[in-house]
Amino acid sequence: MRQMTRRGLLQLGAFSTVAASLPFSKLAIAQAAAPRHFFLHILMSGGVDGSYLFDARSLRMTDKGRHANYLHKNSVRSIPVGVDAARIEMEGSNGTKALRTSLVNPLMAHWPDFSVVNGVLMSKDADGHGQNARYATTNQSNEGFDSFLPMVGEQSGFPIESVLFGFFPDGATPGANFSKSIQFRGTEANGIGRALANGPKIEENSALIRHIQERQLANAQGSGMFSQGSKKLHAALRSAPSLSTALQRATGTADPSTVDVLASLAIVFDYFRSGVTSAATLVYNRDPILDVHGADSATGPQMELIGGSLGSGSSTTAPGVTQNLATVFELLKTTRVNPNDPQSPSFFDVTTVCIHTEFARTMVSAAFFGGDVGNTGTDHNPLSNTVILAGNGIRGGLILGESDCTDVDDAGNILNVSGAHFAREGTTNNMALRKVMGKPFDFATMKARSDLPATFQATDYLNFSSVANTVMDIFAIDRQLQFRVGGNQAPILTSLRKPIQTIPG
């Protein structure tokens, strides 16, 4: 994957301007008639505690000192007990229930439009930020494997398979197949089209252009690395005219937002409607503020960061994460693909949306056993996660999956913990449990199972690979390319699927 620096922008502009005079390839011609269906992927980097969003823990667990529910009581930040003193229960149209907090109130106006997937198992082998982010895109925690993001973007035939705005966690690239993808830092993609439109023009039938094409084609005939590289370069030269033309249509936003994720979204809309790409990832970077672990990090304002201003006990007035995500939904639903046509569908109508973080957090801080449950820092927890799915091809208003560790007895022992969970945490001591884990999942009924497996088998659980495969299924990607768990394709979340809507290119 190419990381786009300022020098890279100049190189892209020069390359595309030179190549703009080349004859359009069959791919570029066919692209104009291709149906448009877009994919928006938002990765909230930093690891969001499930208790902040749609997988809250029981307040009784906080009373018994087993869970740091920052809204219920937080001695360090002096949050009054009256904030979310009572549980807030939500129910999906499929009958599955979950607890949530008031921090997600801004998103609830859009509840009929999105679905929540809880108890999602991330990487089984690692708990680092980059490793779990890679797992979410490649089904592997290590580098060097293909990502589903370019596979999704490839379906449109647009010249760029996918774009990524921001930094992937730990600076790692999300897949080995990103040769036709671009990474931008912040809003530096803004205005490339205007620069290209004002650039120099080259004679399309010049001897130089013909010579370059012929030499690359001749060098591409072998099977070695040099020939394969020449083949890719020749393909890039042939598709460059469509890229340059599309970029020139994407004139950029005149007044970028000061919030990177929203400014990047405006550019994504521009790139989608202009035919630059059909798949985009926005890394909503809130690390290291979210990534706090122990009592020494107790001043980290995670609650304010998620919810923005909460009134008493909250010092910030800036929009929180959930308010910005609500704005994303509002922009998707109010921005028309064709801004000049009042009958044009909105981007929400034709865009599949997936929002998640790389993992959830532990129930208590790393320093809990020597300190107060009010400490704000919590550790990494890949055993359970929450994912939001919405838009084209997705049914809204559903809750799929559940997580365990939802209640305690009078002595503080967490109830209904499976042997598989104890095995994953490496303890047999109930009082030593720190993590939440997804419950076993029945893919036939799309419901969490009530049994407590004695041993861990990945196929018993709702892995993120099923989320990725559901997206790939929406985009009709070959099942043989989809992600596997236990040697077989990870099951599709069929109850979330609905017919897709497309518009002509």
Automatic annotation (TrEMBL):
Transmembrane intervals: none
Coiled coil segments of this chain: none
Highest taxon of source: Bacteria
Keywords: Signal
Keyword Signal in annotation: yes
UniProt KW Signal keyword: yes
Residues making up the signal peptide according to the UniProt record: 1-19
Protein name, entry field: DUF1501 domain-containing protein
